[in-house]
Amino acid sequence: MNTLNQPYHRVLLKLSGESLAASGKHGIDAHRLSAYVQDIKEAHERGIEIAIVIGGGNIFRGVTGTYTGIDRYSGDQMGMLATVINSLALCSALRHAGVHADVLTAVRMEPVGEFYSKWKADSLLRQGHVVILSCGTGNPYFTTDTGAALRGIEIEADAMLKGTRVDGIYTADPEKDPTATKFDTISYDEIYERKLKVMDLTASTLCRENALPIVVFDMDKPGNLQAVLRGEAIGTIVR
Ligand code: UDP
């Protein structure tokens, strides 16, 4: 494995649950799953240590549940279980592609996955496994973006790579405002001052206070993950 000339040694890759679903649909789309596996496998083969936090929005979100009479606490627990479903799918597909991968859970549920600790995750990463950290933070009232920020800090990742369907952070929503322009780099404070919807405030505050850089990029374009890992200027870097 060649780890020379790479800006990142260890990364936390955040994928949204919705990105696993086909456009406008729920559940897991086989083509999207296999495209992600291909990208992650190539990154892994370059010797980069990869931890992944995946959301559950393609299956269930706690806030949405409250509209149908499910209390927020229970709904959030359902949402965390949704992240486990996605994590198991990704882990299984990675293993099928020949990549050593494990799911750790922030809520105890052996034998579905081992209970998360920083040391367990660190040990697996050092052994060359891709580690999928499920259940977000393990607590209701949080998001998987916050889970990703927290885990990224804990495992001392060099950056949090936030794979989205947009190619970076814009001055306004590019789908609604044709004059919106993209930032190459932006500070955490500017995101806050401009009220840009990059991630929730808890997540961005954690990143800011612990100096964890965030790279927002379009994960749906094949090869983009490799480009980010090579340090190419695609997407937006938040420092
Ligand atoms: N969730 C939670 N605590 C966490 C992370 C997630 O309760 O630490 C629940 C919450 O209900 C959330 C759902 O899991 O809506 C799915 O996560 P998220 O909405 O972040 O998924 P994404 O939007 O990334 O697909």
From TrEMBL:
Gene: pyrH
Enzyme class: transferase
Function: Catalyzes the reversible phosphorylation of UMP to UDP.
Domain Aspartate/glutamate/uridylate kinase, first and last residues per copy: 10-218
Superkingdom of this protein's organism: Bacteria
Reactions this protein catalyses: UMP + ATP = UDP + ADP
Cellular component, GO annotation: cytoplasm
Protein name: Uridylate kinase
InterPro entries for the chain: AceGlu_kinase-like_sf, Asp/Glu/Uridylate_kinase, Uridylate_kinase, Uridylate_kinase_bac
BP-aspect Gene Ontology terms: 'de novo' CTP biosynthetic process; UDP biosynthetic process
Record comment: activity regulation: Inhibited by UTP.
Subunit architecture: Homohexamer.
Family per similarity comment: Belongs to the UMP kinase family.
Binding-site residues, ATP: K14, L15, S16, G17, G57, R61, T164, Y170, D173
Keyword Iron (UniProt): no
Species per Swiss-Prot/TrEMBL record: Porphyromonas crevioricanis
Residues that hold UMP according to the record: G56, D76, T137, G138, N139, P140, Y141, F142, T143, T144
This enzyme's EC code(s): 2.7.4.22
Pfam assignment, any one: AA_kinase
Protein localization: Cytoplasm
GO MF, one annotated term: ATP binding
Keywords: ATP-binding, Cytoplasm, Kinase, Nucleotide-binding, Pyrimidine biosynthesis, Transferase
Gene3D superfamilies according to UniProt: Acetylglutamate kinase-like
CDD domains: AAK_UMPK-PyrH-Ec (cd04254)
Metabolic or biological pathway, per its Swiss-Prot or TrEMBL entry: Pyrimidine metabolism; CTP biosynthesis via de novo pathway; UDP from UMP (UMPK route): step 1/1
